[in-house]
Write a structure and sequence with these properties.
single chain, alpha+beta, four-stranded antiparallel beta sheet, 37% helix
Length: 166
């Protein structure tokens, strides 16, 4: 796999990726076998059609599935290989699957900005001390009681303030 990184301003980069034909052929075989398993071709039971017929009949669909699968896999590998900190893949273009079964494409990615952190170890931070009074505790407990209270039917008296009625 050949990967070239072209760094651009505003935290973007363009990756130009070329994949050798042996890997593309291997993936083509895998994808074509999946198509063969589910292909419904007149005269053959599902999954029993010859691979050559499946390859010619579904060539366009196999090619689309293959490029989608390979672009995703190879792009992840290229990002890992070049140690890029990618935030977003903004564009994948110029995807070419050659007659010799080689694949090439370009991808524009948004990378995280690079900067140096200044020395922060000597910054003094003061933490305000908060005292908790018994009134604060009582208010918090009362709030918890109200949140987890169960509603019960009350009979034999009139409606009072803070009652829930239906």
């Amino acid at each position: 796999m050949n990967v070239q990184v072209e760094t651009k301003p505003n935290c973007t980069a363009t990756l130009h990726v070329e994949l050798p034909s042996n890997r593309v052929e291997k993936e083509w075989t895998t994808v074509a076998k999946e198509f063969q398993r589910f292909a419904k071709i007149p005269g053959y039971r599902p999954g029993k059609a010859p691979q050559t017929i499946v390859d010619t009949r579904f060539a366009k669909e196999i090619k689309e599935e293959l490029t989608k699968k390979l672009v995703q896999e190879v792009l992840r590998e290229a990002i890992r290989e070049k140690n890029l900190r990618v935030l977003n893949i903004s564009d994948v273009s110029h995807v070419v699957l050659g007659d010799d079964k080689s694949l090439s494409f370009s991808a524009t990615v948004v990378t995280s900005p690079e900067f140096e952190i200044p020395d922060y170890s000597k910054i003094n931070v003061e933490i305000a001390k908060k005292t908790v009074s018994s009134e604060d505790i009582d208010k918090t407990l009362e709030n918890l009681r109200e949140q987890y209270a169960d509603f019960q039917d009350v009979e034999g008296r009139d409606v009072q303030w803070d009652d829930f009625i239906v």
